[in-house]
Amino acid sequence: MTVRYTLVTTRRFEGQALRLPSAVFAQLRRRLLALEGDPRHPSLKTHEVKHAVGDFGGKVFEG
User: Fold this and answer.
1) Tens of pLDDT along 9-60?
2) Is 54 left (phi over 0), alpha (psi -120 to 50) or beta?
3) pLDDT value, residue 17
4) Is 18 in contact with 25 (CB distance < 8 Å)?
5) Phi then psi for 25, rounded to 5 degrees?
6) Torsion angle defined by CA atoms of residues 21, 7, 34 and 3, in that order, rounded to the nearest 10 degrees
7) Could you give the CA distance from residue 22 to residue 57 in angstroms, rounded to a whole number?
8) Distance between CA atoms of 38 and 4, rounded to whole angstroms?
9) Secondary structure (DSSP) of the chain
């Protein structure tokens, strides 16, 4: 079963995103959609941080 996430953004973020050049905004949109669908999507280039533990004892990933 695949879990789908919902990103929550601020008005400030949305306003700044809308002021980006159209090509950059398109890239941002693609990455955010990939993040919502699968936080470990290969295009996001995320990786596990070794020797780090999350708040609830889980693994920590960064991009």
Assistant:
1) 999 999 999 999 999 999 999 988 888 887 777 777 766 666 665 555 555 5
2) beta
3) 95
4) yes
5) -60, -40
6) -170
7) 40
8) 7
9) ----------HHHHHHHHTS-HHHHHHHHHHHHHHHH-TT-GGG--EEPTT---TTS---EE-
Q: How far apart are CA 63 and CA 14, in angstroms?
A: 21
φ and ψ at residue 26, rounded to 5 degrees: -65, -40
CA distance 18 to 63: 23
Which amino acid is it at 6? T
pLDDT at 56: 57
Q: Which two tokens stand for residue 48?
A: 């596990």
CA atoms within 13 A on the CB side of 42: 0
